[in-house]
Amino acid sequence: MRKRPLFIGAVVTGVALAGVSYLAASTGASGVRSPVSLAAATAGSGKAADLNGDGYDDLAIGAPDGAVQGRAKAGYVTVTFGAKSDHAVGIASRKHQRLTPSSAGIPGAPQSDARFGSALALGDMDGDGYAELVVGASGANAGGVKGAGSVTIVFGSPGGLSARAITFHSPSLTTHQGFGGGLALGDFNGDGLQDLAVPDGDRVDIVLGAKDLRSTPSPRITRSGPPGGGAGTQGISTGDVNGDGFDDLITVAHFDDPADQGTLGVLPGSKAGLKGSSLGRDISLPFAGYTAVAGDINGDGKDDVVIGTGFGDGPDDHLLRTFPGTADGLDAARAVAFKGGAYNSDRVHLADINGDGHADLLVGDTQAPDSDGFRDAGALVVATGGPEWLDSAERTVSLDTKGVTGVAENGDRFGSALAVGDYDGDGTTDVAVGVPGKWRDSGAVSMLHGSRDGLTGSGSIIFGPDEFGYGAVKTSFGASLAG
Description:
Layout: E1 10-11, E2 59-63, E3 76-82, E4 91-99, E5 116-123, E6 132-137, E7 150-157, E8 160-168, E9 184-186, E10 195-200, E11 203-207, E12 222-224, E13 232-239, E14 248-254, E15 262-267, E16 283-285, E17 290-295, E18 304-309, E19 321-323, E20 325-326, E21 329-330, E22 336-337, E23 348-351, E24 360-365, E25 379-383, E26 395-397, E27 418-421, E28 430-435, H1 438-441, E29 444-449, E30 456-463, E31 480-482
Antiparallel strand pairs: 1-30, 2-3, 2-31, 3-4, 5-6, 6-7, 7-8, 9-10, 10-11, 11-12, 13-14, 14-15, 15-16, 17-18, 18-19, 19-22, 20-21, 23-24, 24-25, 25-26, 27-28, 28-29, 29-30
């Protein structure tokens, strides 16, 4: 592989399916993977990802393998704030904050292998107009239990991250459970405050947003059993599937271990919070290794669900499928198979990139080769949504795309994490792409500007931890994102 220059901080001026099951059942495939953060929250007041209330979305970047106070893989999080910009996506290194378990107001202390920042979410949980930063530490020791995991909620303020935070763990501590490895925010009870959902083994733990949340040392946790579960919860997402104004909890769960079958289900929100029974009929999956994300693709006011996977026994397993949202739940009989490529990826996201009122699909294809043919450089695949679902003429963007700052190289894993937001306040959606393998695993984030024509390389930037003066040795900077 030929050597390339570095660009740290550089700136450039439908298949019908019978019943409620789909695909042929596969055998001997567990498909179990660590849960990932899937939801883009809609805040109850202010902007969803605006920590300091200045009207610009902010970006949180996880570096879960970063050392803190000499403790390997203790992990840290960088918040870089949105701002008006005439030359690039409005993210500036001069306006940032670093958060570690040793930061003022954060309960606890740095721990080796805690992986603070392994999952992230942003949303206003207390209704004061400032988003909170939710940080998972999936490897943290909690309550004397090794690797049980923990979650920290850091409250926003006019100055950004405040010195007020609360940390909690699972009600049922289990060794190496990895609590905090997945996070999702949504307003389940319609009170205008974001509620937090955390996968926890065979359950999902719920912390309701509350105006006095920051004064609660240990938040009240309620537990929900995902449809088709009993052995484990693969991943979670949120969205309003039936269009009733309450966010619903979307889950992929399995009832046996090792898993040889999965279930896609929806627990509906209501004025009283999440209901215990499914919205509509559950959908059988051939294995549990799917992620599910929600967004209104066809513009009917109801969120649709797209599933993707990084595991499969055959090419059909990797086909992206859309399940339309209806008043009665997900419509399996009218599921739509994506007619574009089949991608071996569970990094999927739905967001309206071109501002036409239809959610577009983003797929982080971390195994995509670079221009020399070396694998795992990574790419971002974008399929435009519309009244007739996802356009098969998808566009691929990578660090080798003309106009995009940077150079794609073997092992970059571009697309490992995705976040969207209007970081420069111009009314269009920008996309942050995690590149945790860049520069020998120090990691980086690529910022791509949105436009009415979709993503553009014009004004894009790429930056790593040294842009902020942080150590850059195998931190996996960009392994998780929230915006």
